[in-house]
Amino acid sequence: MKRSLLIFAIILLTGGGMLHAQSSFGLKAGMNFASLSSTETGETPDYTIDAFSDAYTGFHVGVTGMFVFRGGFFQPELLYTQNGRDMRLGFTSGEEEAEFFVHKYSHLVLPLHAGAKFGALKIGAGPVFSFLINDWNDLGVDVEFDQNLNKFTLGYQLGAGLQLGNLILDFRYEGNFTQFGDGITIGGQTIGFDTRPQQFILSLGLLF
Questions:
Q1: 190 lies in which domain range?
Q2: CA distances (Å), origin 132, targets 21, 36, 48, 199
Q3: 194 pLDDT band (50/70/90 cuts)?
Q4: 3-state SS record for 107-170
């Protein structure tokens, strides 16, 4: 909560200069490298499930704005993102081999990034609001499997970037204040997972 207040304070403090800001808008796309802080494991009488901490590469695409004023900037964005995580389904009976699969999900994401600007270099932070659009997996066995994901999550981004004319290069770290989901339901039984993925984001934007 303290982090949330700090991030919103940054935006409010920079908002006074918005009246004299130079504004531009454009397109943005890039790669997301998402991972869990550690591998998570759950078990029912019939199954075991592992969510691996290894990074999964996804992508994002959307629109960005850039408001530059004396000593600072404000950069709101609206992005479609697709990401996932590598998982393993095991059978406690031992009669079947474990099944490795990927669970994917897509979000509509609203990052609000603000901070200081030193020539071409910009350093900032801000909240990011994520709205779940869809999730699916490529599990190859006929087992009831469902991730109980939250439709709305709140996170934060920290990062640095360069603005070279109409080009923007951003590198950010994203963490979460809220749980990504409440657990996994498999074979009619629910396992509680407090999965809070983190990700590194690399993107390129073009302003018009």
A1: 2-207
A2: 33, 18, 26, 16
A3: low
A4: EEEEEEEEEEEECCEEEEEEEEEEEEEEEEECCCCCCCEEEEECCEEEEEEEEEEEEECCEEEE
Q: Answer whether 175's CB lies under 8 Å from 198's CB.
A: yes
Burial call 1-29: b when 16+ CB within 10 Å, e when fewer: eeeeeebeebbeebeebeeebeeeeeebe
Contact 39, 51 (CB under 8 A): yes
Tell me the CATH number at 76. 2.40.160.20
Residue 167: alpha-carbon gap to chain centroid = 23
State the distance between the two ends of the chain, measured CA to CA, in whole angstroms: 36
Q: Is 96 in a helix, a strand, or coil?
A: coil
Q: How far is CA 92 from CA 42, 115, 133, 191, in A?
A: 12, 51, 33, 15
Structure-block tokens of residue 105: 């999900």
Between CA 108 and CA 6 the distance in angstroms is 24
Cα three-residue angle 43-47-49, rounded to 5 degrees: 60
Chain segment 95-119, per-residue pLDDT in tens: 788 999 999 999 999 999 999 999 9
Domain count, the chain: 1
Q: From CA 185, how far away is CA 190, in angstroms rounded?
A: 4
| Cα–Cα distance measured from residue 16 to residue 19, given in angstroms and rounded to the nearest whole number | 7
